[in-house]
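Quick one: ADP-dependent (S)-NAD(P)H-hydrate dehydratase from Bacteriovorax antarcticus, structure tokens please.
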Amino acid sequence: MIIKIDSKDAKNLIPKRSKLSSKIDGGKVLIVAGGAGLHGAGILSALAATRSGAGYTHLMTDLVKYPWVKFPDFILHKFSLTELKKNSKDVIAMGPGLGTAESKKKLLRFLIKSKIEKVVLDADALTMLSTMKVKQLPSTWILTPHEGELARLLGVTSTSVKKKRVEHLIMAQKKFGCVVLLKGAESLISDGKRIQKVSNGTVALAKAGTGDVLLGMIAAFYAQGLNQVEATVLGTFIHGQASADWMKKGNDHLSLRPMDLIEQIPKTIFKLRGNVVKV
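--- reply ---
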């Protein structure tokens, strides 16, 4: 049985704050993304994390020619295993624009070997994972592949995944032992106990960079106290709804930029919460 997530389900998962809340309640996120020439991927993930409530957002990236003055929202770090170890208790989201060089594989191997608790993998991190011999990952990890990435993780063709999405999602979850989000027009989420479906996304999301935004959103919700399944469900739902809300403003689906999606996040969360503001 596949459970379809609706707005009521998502609303109940939105993190809450009280008058006594501080940035500590928002948790800490470390985005490991944006290698040489691909700074934008890391920026998108980090900005999405700040827009989704993370108390602290760190970005480990290639700092060459980095336009840091334009993005004071997060704390910057060079790629460093030492720095990664210092932040290993945070939610670590890894992959967009990272590249697959041996130096990056060392970072991923550390996370796997050390069984770091809260990790979200996407893009290049999934590509690297597909080349490694891994028995199972901690159940608290989250993998966010599209059909092509899932195919590489399983050693099958993209066509076979497209034809039997549920079956291959189940295979991936059993293989890695953690939460798997299969992205697409109908995104499917499995933790081995049940499969949940989020189908409110739009064709506007079929553009490079929107997945980087989703990674930052899931990581931020995970840092705020939601468990691995809840964070994945909420992030995916709000991500899809934000694209729909943006289109309802009279925008054409061809024109959505990842930055538009990020700017839409606050309005979509506010609307979903019920427009109730407690001061």
